[in-house]
Amino acid sequence: MRRYADSSFLASCYVTDANTAQAKTVLSAIHTPLAFTDLHALEMQNAFQLGIFRGQLSVREAAAARANLQKDLRSGRLLRTGLKWPAVFEAAARLSQRHSKTTGTRSLDILHIASARSLRAKEFLSFDARQLSLATLLGLISAA
């Protein structure tokens, strides 16, 4: 996979927020599938549920967002991608040890970056500044 999108990027593709226009512009220029891992599945489900809890989404809007995500999985825009999670967690632990004290990245940020590296992605799509900082430091082209 050439590109890896974190959950902040993907969420902006399915629910309207401050980054939605930019996410959709980037997404429309991509003609290859984006990886969709178990981590993405959990985080997207949680993002939709949190949107309801926070009053940002109605139950109907969350259901529509889930349906659009499923449509993109069926069409191949998103590609279910398995990872060797023990290896990803080991890599994430090393990244945390080396970089969190200077970048301020959180565990899930690091897991996404370790996942992208495991898939040999060249480009990292995110709206999280700290995560993009670490991705850039590690040689991933940061975008979004």
Strand content: 5-15%
* Arithmetic mean pLDDT: 94
Order of strands in the sheet with the most strands? Answer: 1-4-5
Order of helices and strands: EHHEHHEHHEHE
Distance between the termini: 17 Å
CATH structural architecture: 3-Layer(aba) Sandwich
How many DSSP-defined strands? 5
Main sheet record:
3 strands, parallel
Q: Roughly how much helix do the residues carry, as a percent range?
A: 55-70%
Computed CA radius of gyration, to the nearest angstrom: 15 Å
General description of the model:
The protein is mainly alpha-helical. 63% of the residues lie in helices and 10% in strands. It has helices at 7-14, 20-29, 38-53, 59-75, 85-103, 107-118, 129-137; strands spanning 3-5, 34-36, 78-80, 123-125, 141-143. Strands 1-4-5 form a three-stranded parallel β-sheet. It has a two-stranded parallel ribbon with strand order 2-3. Strand 4 (123-125), helix 7 and strand 5 (141-143) form a beta-alpha-beta unit. Helix 1 packs across helix 2, helix 3 packs antiparallel against helix 4 (59-75) and helix 5 (85-103) crosses helix 6 (107-118). The two termini are 17 Å apart.
